[in-house]
Model the fold of this input.
Amino acid sequence: MKILVVGGAGFIGSHVVDLYIDNGHEVHVVDDLSTGKKGNIHPRAKFHHLDIYNDQEALTHLIQSEKFEIINHHAAQKSVPASMENPIIDAQINIMGTLNLLESAVEHGVKKFIFASSGGTLAGDISKIPTSEVDTPVLVSPYAISKYTLEKYLDFYYQHHGLNYTVLRYANVYGPRQVPDGECGVVSIFLENFMQGKPSKIYTFPHMPSGATRDYIFVKEVARVNLLVLDDGDNQVFNIGTGVETSTESVYQILQDGLKCYVPCIKEPKRKGDLERVSLNCDQAFKQLGWRYQTSLQQGLMETIYSVLERKIECK
Ligand SMILES: NC(=O)c1ccc[n+]([C@@H]2O[C@H](COP(=O)([O-])OP(=O)(O)OC[C@H]3O[C@@H](n4cnc5c(N)ncnc54)[C@H](O)[C@@H]3O)[C@@H](O)[C@H]2O)c1
Done:
């Protein structure tokens, strides 16, 4: 298949590109390199340095001339705090940028649109754990609102223009190539701090002294589901996680033991807006796609540690 991966220079998108190419697909990448890196892009992918919000004309020209069968969309403004500080920029990239892609997709015969949504942020502080796709989303940030809005637009483009879609609502994705940015990606933030011998902060709740719980899913498992939905799961929404809740402190301890690098952590009270618990019910992905995670958190974290050590950064 001929596939355009938007955001293919980023953490998750670049693993999706690798797997598509390994499976014989022809892949183009659109990315503005705002958080992604050119070095992440598979050498056999054709790269187009474009911004999905500002470069609409060039984007349309690309989609028209290359006649992609699939658009896989992983580009986003992905920071929840940034979306709260500047909802307009969030909407420009996440809503308007995606609408630019969708308009070109229907105009130029794209068959299917695969969209990276967010299970964790759509769950909000929901009482039902693990959360399933049919539970009513609790939207507590502009980032969550923009992701959910796009899910509704996808249904509109399917109903009115026949563009098939699959929505993948990811839990907390971790693995090689994740960049610590101070706000999200606790595994990469902890790893970076360990490498520098710096203590990390764990935000706690009065009744949860080991910190919030999250559902951690290894990036290669996420890439694998992106391969399966090339020809399955049309016009459906899938949670992609493990259903297992792990506290922040447990992640810290696994990394500490794996690295044999003992730096005490600092415990602080939760920040405004921190969710207590996230875990996704992923039965639907198993029923429809036969997808279920196979990499345990320990295995995935060890592979992530090795990838960091390969980059020859040493634990101080
Ligand atoms: N990492 C997670 O745990 C997680 C969880 C849920 C959902 N998601 C979603 O998965 C997707 C990928 O996330 P990631 O963690 O790989 O982030 P990432 O920042 O590594 O990847 C995003 C990519 O999009 C590119 N990009 C951003 N704005 C762009 C624009 N205007 N035009 C073109 N390219 C642009 C960036 O340069 C980057 O390469 C995002 O949509 C994110 O919201 C991620």
